[in-house]
Amino acid sequence: MGLRIFKGLETDNAYLELKTSLANNESVIIVGDCEVEYYGRASSTLTRGERVVMIKQDGSILVHRPEGYEPVNWQPPGCLFKVDSLNGLLKIVATRLSPHEVLTISFHKVYVMVCGRLYDKGIFSMHASEDEMKEAIRLNPSLIEEGLRILTSEKDLGEAGYADFVGEDSKGNFVVIEIKREVAGEEEVLQLARYVNEAKQRVNRPVRGVLVAPSLRRRGQVLLEQLKLEFKALTPESCKRFLKKVPRLSLLEFME
Asked: 253 pLDDT band (50/70/90 cuts)?
């Protein structure tokens, strides 16, 4: 990665650097005082202000204001760029051919410009949250075991706290379930034990305790066996894959 960083460039010099960068399909970040016009399926005007403009190597462009994470204006990958230096302005025109859309950015001042080719071969992995694990189990309790039926979630068990789920297995046993998205250990086993002990005082039938997590540390496994509790290995990724397969109802379908 070889980045070129320019500060306080005159618009004429910024034009020359930007033209070279675009010809080489480089990434460009410009911080400056600009105004923006868009014409396409609709039209918009953004008056002068200090903003960050990002041009990426795939031909996309984004205009960011000082606040908020979404761009106020943008064009998708594959744009055609034209740059000019005219009357003291650095003008960038990004054109999308289909549908026809034109984004014009006019810089009155360029405070900082960064240019260079970036290399990124990293693999992005999206991991499910604990809430997504709970949602998958609620929709499909067989992820834990066949015949399991969820009775309620966030069950209040007094001083012991709130159990993630309580349910009933195929033999009619009362099942207390504690879910963790990361590796579980002794602390999680002891928490489940507190839930189970409290549940035994409230229901008149056998009570099982099941700890659900991607894996269990060895000392946690020893304690689990001593307390006669159970462990079910379930990863956030498998829950997320399940949720992707579940059809989502629209609001109207849900209300019918």
From this structure: very low
Check residue 251 and give its pLDDT: 41
CB distance 178 to 229 below 8 Å? no
pTM: 0.57
Summarised one tens digit per residue, pLDDT across range 71-128 is: 999 999 999 999 999 999 999 999 999 899 999 999 999 999 999 999 998 876 666 7
Residue whose C-alpha is closest to residue 11's, from 157, 113, 137: 113
In angstroms, the CA 155 to CA 162 distance is: 5
Domains of the chain are: 4-116 (2.70.180.20), 130-255 (3.40.1350.10)
Instruction: Kindly calculate the radius of gyration of the chain based on its CA atoms and give it in whole angstroms.
Output: 29
**191: which DSSP letter?**
H
At 134, the amino acid letter reads K
Q: Are the CB atoms for 61 and 54 separated by under 8 Å?
A: yes
* Beta-carbon count within 10 A of 239 CB: 25
